[in-house]
Design brief:
This protein has 337 residues and is an alpha/beta fold. Helices cover 46% and strands 21% of the residues. A seven-stranded mixed beta sheet has the order 6-5-4-7-8-10-9, with helices on both faces. A three-stranded antiparallel beta sheet has the order 1-3-2. Helix 5 packs across helix 6. The longest helix has 40 residues. The radius of gyration is 22 Å and the shape is elongated.
Length: 337
């Protein structure tokens, strides 16, 4: 992005309004058109100019295209950070522009409500399936508490840095750890699940969380992009979990962390049909072997027995040659292993 390209792109009231909207939250192209009260083709032309200049970026998610700002006060580029501050000051100091931005944000409430309604409808349709699976294992609360304790202790200073939540689903885990992360990427293959997650995460700052669609077998991120990678009840969907963990190791910075929450090995063959589980849980030996082969050092293991299925938690650290290695250790809480 050059300053000349940015100034040319911002030389239009509608595009200025779009950038201020994107400072609040990520929006679908149709949602931007709804807020602005303009036709989608007209809004799409403005969006193309913003994206071509580097001020915004588009991401396809199923049949939808979502737009997010490429600038922010926390951006790595000093120019991008300065432009974000300039727009914020302009809204505060320019009375007419500020009034228009305020009106636009009032329309965002309708967008938020629509997303929440969609989420409620989805859960209503799938409630029986979720209730059936939940009845087989311990409640989410103790699992989340154990995962939080393990990760924050492993981080040392309580900071999880750049966090990737693989298979984010409803976005619950991304929301849980957002306060401890510098930036969160909520990643999922399903556009429907990403819409659920977007409704849950829309209260977070726009530059704090990013939703990305893709396959966990081919993570579309640069090497060493993340300090923490989470797999919460997702690895059992993998046909080749060893390849998935190898991909996770590639995008994890040396000394970074991985956490896996999944089921201990079990014999509920029916879950392959009813819930599309490719793997019937994992043994400690399986996980340890896959982690070591991928380049992680296994660190801690816990078991949380509930009903028929046992939930297991495994953490590990990305191996590196330049720092003192953490000694592998195993710690099991009460419950079957």
């Amino acid at each position: 992005m050059t300053i000349l390209d940015a100034i040319r792109a911002l030389d239009d009231p509608t595009r200025l309004r779009i950038m201020r909207l994107l400072a609040s939250m990520e929006l679908a192209v149709g949602e931007v058109a709804q807020v602005l009260g303009q036709s989608q083709p007209r809004v799409s032309r403005h969006i193309k100019i913003l994206c071509d200049s580097g001020l915004a970026e588009r991401r396809k998610e199923g049949a939808w295209v979502f737009l997010r700002s490429s600038i922010g006060e926390g951006a790595e580029s000093p120019l991008a950070s300065a432009l974000a501050r300039l727009l914020a000051v302009a809204e505060h100091e320019d009375t007419a522009f500020g009034r228009r931005c305020s009106e636009d944000r009032q329309h965002l409430d309708a967008i938020r409500s629509s997303r929440e309604s969609h989420a409620l409808e989805w859960f209503a349709r799938h409630a029986d399936e979720w209730d059936e699976l939940r009845s087989l294992h311990i409640a989410d609360g103790p699992v989340e508490a154990a995962l939080t304790e393990m990760l924050l202790a492993l981080s040392g200073d309580g900071s999880l840095g750049r966090l990737l939540d693989v298979g984010t689903g409803t976005g619950r885990i991304a929301e849980l750890f957002a306060p401890n992360a510098a930036h969160v990427v909520a990643f999922d293959k399903s556009p429907d699940m990403l819409r659920i997650a977007r409704a849950r995460l829309q209260h977070l700052p726009a530059d704090a969380v990013e939703l990305v669609q893709g396959d966990f077998a081919q993570l579309p991120f640069a090497a060493r992009s993340f300090d923490t990678v989470l797999f919460h009840q997702v690895l059992h969907y993998a046909q080749a979990p060893e390849a998935v963990l190898a991909g996770a190791a590639r995008v994890t910075a040396p000394g970074g962390r991985v956490a896996i929450v999944d089921f201990a090995a079990h014999e509920r063959e029916d879950l392959r049909q009813t819930h599309a589980h490719a793997r019937l849980g994992f043994s400690d030996a399986q996980i340890e072997t896959m982690l070591l082969d991928a380049g992680f050092i296994p660190h801690e293991t816990r078991a949380l027995a509930g009903h028929e299925l046992v939930v297991k938690l495994w953490t590990a650290v990305r191996r590196e040659d330049s720092v003192t290695q953490l000694e592998p250790r195993q710690k099991s809480s009460s419950g079957k292993t």
